Amino acid sequence: MASPAASEVYIVDASDRYHAVEALWREIGTPSLDKKTVAVKANFNSDDPFPATTHPDALEAILGQVRDAGARTVRLGERSGMGETGAVLKNRGAADVAARTGAEVVALDALPPGEWEAIPPDGLHWERGFLIARVFREADAVVQTCCLKTHRFGGHISLSLKNPVGAVAKRNPEDGYNYMAELHSSPHQRRMIAEINRFFPCDIAILDATEGFSTGGPERGTRIAPNVILASTDRVALDAAGVALLRLHGTTPEVMQGRIFEMDPIARAAELEIGVKSAEDLRLVALDSESKELVLDMRRILDETA
Q: Where does the DUF362 domain lie (predicted)?
């Protein structure tokens, strides 16, 4: 994936999630999904309500856009790190939303060995590489939606680059090796998170920042309410904008300090050419009058740390 010369991050008022997602989808100009297989990765890491997990209204709006774009098959793939995936999806309303919109739910924990692709460790900080679900690797298109959160277990931020951790196997089904134990105990955790994205395709990423956690996370924390939704085809640009939004509200020392593009997950993802390499190559676009002042404030923060 070549880094684009410049990437847009679109921002819209989130008072009406359905209208917001529709506006973002239209502005980004997503390629045709007609008769295609689309994999969707939401954020259902734990059995906790939004902003810990994807809001059911946001999920329904996104799945609706995918369906209306003509997708032949839509699969919602998930692995919950803090709970049993099937129960989490049911309790958080995701299973009902999927049923209403005609999407197939794929609980990644239950996949047989043949449904995982082995990624070798060459050039990575993963000791043995890792396994990633083929439902995402083999889809014609991938859409993901994430939340605005900090991460107190070493990730520092939990945005679009962190979300694909839920597409990686917890354990190797053949020998039981625990990839998540390695990830969470490694001093390279944040770089390893970025490296997953090299093998996780993503056509559009949507960040629901209607509310968020400015400290704590990923399942609980200090709540903030920016009341916007952001979207981009560039996960690096989207996460840089998300960090600017967190800084605007006051966040953890790890997230407040230093240059945004020198933060480990963003820097490593940029190095791997997953997205833009600097704040100068990131363009914030307000889609309504309510978001214009916020965009100016976020731009100021990005420029201060460029």
A: 38-243
Handedness of CA 216, 221, 222, 223 (dihedral sign): positive
78's tokens: 């998930």
DSSP state of 171: B
Tokens read off for 72: 């032949």
Look at the block and give the residue holding tokens 């963003």. Answer: 266
Report yes or no on 2 lying in a domain: no
Query: Could you tell me the pTM of the whole model?
Result: 0.96
Q: What is the CATH number of the domain that holds 210?
A: 3.40.50.11440
Range of the domain at 206: 7-304
pLDDT in tens, 262-284: 999 999 999 999 999 999 999 99
Q: With pLDDT > 90 as the criterion, what percentage of the chain qualifies?
A: 96
pLDDT per residue over 52-73, tens digit each?
A: 999 999 999 999 999 999 999 9
Residue corresponding to tokens 């600097």: 278
Distance, CA of 147 to CA of 157 (rounded, Å): 10
